[in-house]
Amino acid sequence: MAAANYSEYNFLFVTKEELPIDNTEAVTRYFNTHSIDVCVNCAAYTAVDKAESEKEKAFAVNAAATGSLASLCKEKNILFIHISTDYVFDGTATAPYKEDHPVQPVGVYGASKLKGEELALQNNPDSIIIRTSWVYSSFGNNFVKTMLRLMKERDTINVVDDQQGCATYAADLAHAIMDIVAGINVTPGIYNFSNHGVITWYQFAVAIKELSGSHCMVNPIPSSQYPTPAKRPSYSVLDTSKIRETFNVVIPEWKDSLKKCLAVLVS
Question: Per the confidence metrics, is the pTM higher than 0.90?
Answer without folding.
Answer: yes
